Amino acid sequence: MAARKPRAARPVDTGLQRLLALAGRGVSPNRMAREVDAIAAEWRRGVEGEDGTDLKEQMDELREQLVAGVAAAEEAMSDVDASDAGAVKQARHMLAALTATRDAAEEALAAA
Fold first, then answer.
1. What angle do CA 19, 40, 25 make, to 5 degrees?
2. Domain spans of the chain?
3. How large is the average pLDDT for residues 26-39?
């Protein structure tokens, strides 16, 4: 029985993993937005000379995932104990980082 070759990760999944790793390290929202720009630039280089349909689909899927992440973070904010200043600060930072990534993805999609 032949061994299966591992499937290559989808670009959107790889991009989301990069963003999650940065978010987990607590980087600034500006840095998160720059990472979205870097991901979009890499994807653009990968489709040079093609019609760009895959790029738009990837950017749209990334944007959709980030929109869902912002919604989840907003919901999580309501569950944070307001008396726990550290938790409130962390939740606000995560929401700001996700909002920045969503906004950058929307801009990148518009430019695609």
1. 15
2. 32-40+53-112
3. 95
